[in-house]
From TrEMBL:
Single Gene Ontology MF annotation: oligo-1,6-glucosidase activity
Alphabetized SUPFAM superfamilies for the sequence: (Trans)glycosidases (SSF51445), Glycosyl hydrolase domain (SSF51011)
Span of domain Glycosyl hydrolase family 13 catalytic: 16-439
The protein's name: Glycosyl hydrolase family 13 catalytic domain-containing protein
Any GO BP annotation: sucrose catabolic process
Length: 584
């Protein structure tokens, strides 16, 4: 035994599928479950062990399925319950696990619970959502408080039948469930969790995993945006007082009936000590979480949608954000995730590296080395394995489908009276970090619509799919896809060091062009030394002094032959044998 006994999900390589844009099987322009099933051999071959399927539930699609109208049914364009049964069975048949998105902070306003709840104040579901009386100020009716919704505007919506407002932390069509009520919690557990575990799924990615417990006094938020009607109110609903109690309740009452269920929580804006409360193995709440430090780099974190125009960061900040997450393991029994992309973010190549033609493939391989050398459960987002990148800058707002980006754009439009320069700036932000970047169809081949659909795609296909697609990369042994496959295999082969390594250390914290880090094998003293170039130029290597004379074995490199210097966007990793390392 060399490493800590892994729970299955610790060393599992996971792949996120966004059903609408993954693979269309019937030509209606929308990806679907049969399309997913048809690509399982591709994923298996890549080395994927767990699939995370983003919401495929019945939904009016106001927020791409994060507004669920029935947890126990499927959005018809994606397929049927029978298709899901087949997907589960086929995944398991091929030795892969499947996890689903668990969206239980809110439902759709079309969910039967809410349809009933809004009718009057006395029906069976009357208190299943968060209803409050209007506030009367100077004889005028106002929402109960000044909280701002994540995607803009007031977090409260008025309903005449009850002469009351309901809370929605996201869009108005996503009313927040009232977790304070035991009966509501039990219904959520039964319908959203138990229903699917019974069908054999292996866990959940938990949406907005720290928002269920609110400050039930619903006080006004402090004014941090002077002069504005609504105010960011994270403080009053992030990591609320009963979160941990409820998560333990779920574990004990539901999950424990099914063995080692993976629960990976999405955990926005939470500091180290609080994160640790969720992910300590002893607490048995979340298995691990998605920290926002890396993906929110350059944002001011005050909450409420994306401030599209402010996302710029430096390499030292990037290193620090990664180190913060890796350090979560030091002296704790916690576990972490490794990821740079998901359905809410711009593409990592464009955002953290470069999508310039001449360096793109090198940079994609470099990011693959980074991710595969970090400790934690690895999540890859569809298309990342072929180096997909952001949509071109010339796209206009008419191509955008995402509610977050559209609201942000309209907000800028209103504030600046439609000023053209401001709108250009807003569009620039959307191009950099807008959520649709990740939601464009996957490039399967160089045929029309990138082989995603034979019909007319629901969202525009990236203009440059011919440069970056699965079929061409499968034929090219030097492709990004082949590199990822090699990297994933290497990660498995050296799991003790790559997946479970400890003592993450950055050696060039202030360098703007190179990222050098080491990690240690948990028991043998072997070390991993990784050099990553984030530069268009040739760069010298910063060897930690104690490594200089150590015997190094080149584990992986992104170039044909490693030289004295780092080539632009090169990455390489060395193995330093325990005995050979002096002074460390
Ligand atoms: O996202 C929650 C979240 O924190 C978002 O505010 C995120 O920061 C935003 O999407 C960035 O633009 C989850 C889902 O991942 C997201 O897709 C959903 O829209 C949201 O919950 C509501 O369910
Ligand atoms: Ca379809």
């Amino acid at each position: 035994m060399t490493a800590p006994t892994p729970n299955w999900w610790k060393s599992s390589t996971c792949y996120q599928i966004w059903p609408a844009s993954y693979k269309d099987s019937n030509g209606d322009g929308i990806g679907d479950i049969p399309g997913i099933i048809s690509t399982l051999p591709y994923l298996k071959d890549l080395g994927i062990e767990t699939i995370w399927l983003s919401p495929m539930y019945a939904s009016p699609q106001k927020d791409m399925g994060y507004d669920i109208s029935d947890y126990e049914d499927i959005y018809p364009p994606y397929g049927t319950l029978a298709d899901m049964d087949e997907l589960i069975e086929k995944c398991h048949g091929m030795g892969m696990k499947l996890i689903l998105d668990l969206v239980v902070n809110h439902t759709s306003d079309q969910h039967k619970w809410f349809v009933e709840s809004r009718k009057d104040k006395t029906n069976k579901y009357a208190d299943w959502y968060i209803w409050r009386d209007p506030k009367i100020v100077d004889g005028k009716q106002q929402p109960p408080n000044n909280w701002r919704a994540t995607f803009g505007g007031s977090a409260w919506e008025y309903v005449e039948e009850r002469d009351q407002y309901y809370l929605h932390l996201f869009v108005a069509e996503q009313p927040d469930l009232n977790w304070e009520l035991e009966e509501t919690r039990q219904a959520i557990y039964k319908s959203a969790i138990d229903f699917w575990l019974k069908k054999g799924i292996d866990g959940f990615r938990v949406d907005t995993a720290n928002l269920y417990s609110k400050d039930t006094l619903y006080p006004d938020a402090a004014i941090t945006a002077p002069g504005e009607v609504t105010q960011p109110a994270f403080k009053h609903y992030l990591n609320g007082p009963r979160m941990h109690e409820w998560l333990r309740e779920i574990r004990e009452q539901v999950l424990d009936n099914y063995g080692d269920v993976l629960m990976v929580g999405e955990l926005p804006y939470t500091e180290r000590d609080e994160v640790l409360r969720y992910v300590s193995a002893e607490a048995r709440e979340y298995s691990c979480v998605f920290d926002f430090d890396v993906v929110m780099l350059g944002n001011d974190h005050v909450g409420g949608g994306k401030k599209h125009q402010t996302f710029t960061h430096t390499l030292p900040q990037f290193k620090a954000a990664i180190a913060k997450c890796q350090d979560m393991l030091v002296g704790t029994d916690a576990w972490v995730t490794v990821f740079l992309e998901n359905h809410d973010q711009g593409r990592s190549l464009s955002r953290f590296a470069t999508d310039k033609d001449e360096f793109r493939d090198q940079a994609a391989k470099m990011l693959a080395v980074l991710l595969c050398c970090l400790t934690g459960t690895l999540f890859i987002y569809q298309g990342q394995e072929i180096g997909m990148y952001n949509h071109p800058e010339h796209w206009g707002i008419e191509e955008i489908r995402d509610i977050d980006s559209l609201n942000a754009y309209n907000d800028v439009k209103e504030r600046h009276d439609g000023d053209e320069l401001w709108l250009k700036k807003a569009m620039k932000g959307i191009q950099a970090v807008g959520r649709d970047n990740a939601r464009l169809p996957v490039h399967w081949d160089a045929s029309p619509n990138a082989g995603f659909t034979t019909g007319s795609p629901w969202i525009r296909v990236h203009d440059e799919f011919e440069k970056t697609n699965v079929a061409d990369q499968q034929k090219d042994p030097n492709s990004v896809l082949h590199f990822w496959k090699k990297m994933i295999a290497l990660r498995k082969e050296h799991a003790d060091l790559l997946v479970f390594g400890t003592q993450f250390e950055v050696w060039d914290r202030h360098d703007q062009h190179v990222f050098t880090f080491t990690k240690s094998h948990p028991t043998t003293g072997d070390k991993l030394l990784v050099f990553l170039s984030f530069s268009d130029d040739i760069e010298p290597l910063h060897y930690p002094t104690w490594v200089k004379d150590a015997e190094k074995e080149l584990l992986i490199s992104t170039v044909a032959e490693v030289g004295k210097y780092l080539a632009p966007w090169e990455a390489r990793a060395y193995l330093l044998k325990g005995g050979a390392v002096n002074g460390a």
